[in-house]
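Continuing the series of single-chain predictions for the mutant panel. This is the parent chain; the variants come on the following pages.
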Amino acid sequence: MNDNSWKAIFDKYKIYKHDFDKKPFVISAEQIKQATAHFKKTNEKEVRILAKQDSREDRPQIFIDKNLFILPIRNGEYIIIKGEGYLDIPIIEKSAKVYNSKLDFILDTSKVGNSEMQHLDFAYASSLIRTFLEDQSLVLTIRGRKYTPKFSFTVRNQLITAEGVQTEVDAGYEGINQVVLIEAKNSQTQNTIIRQLFYPFRQWSHFTSKTVKTLFFEKRSNFYSLWQYEFKDINDYNSINLTKSCRYEIIDNKL
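Parent structure:
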């Protein structure tokens, strides 16, 4: 959690005295480097690592104590802001649905390894993603890192503007009427930072007039789980809402 590194950062820039109820605290990558230059280990001074707080538990103690989280707002610049930055991923209580793969042959290569990407690719190849979304027109069109256009949003009524922030989706699909963005994990996730869904959502909403949907995907044991989220207000970071979810067991028809 890099408690010592963030303590040094808070001490150097007197962040303890900042009134987070009025506005976020803006901090640059260069400032973080300067405050942690005396640390020896890479994970104690590498900006990318210090700013990577993808779950509530990843935050340093000072963030937890003060109900803070960190967001990138442009290349080399961040804000530390008070509020709820994370989304709980609920357990799907219903029994898994048996899903018969639409493939008429066995994919040998999908069984090698245990990466998020390969599990998501297998779910797509089996047409599970299309079935969950009830859209047979979906095709893979988005993958990898891109940079956001300029956009503004609110957190606790505080206006934030971001531009040129690097985003990455594990897969994005486009159909006749919609674009679907997926964040994938291959282990049990209890919560995740909303940014991973919100920033790509805002990014692609800028480039298309089609409906943009955001999904969270998880492969654990033999089960494939999907959660679909929407943002009720495109300008409100915390307006995220679960619309549906389902857990599947994929059956290969050739076995």
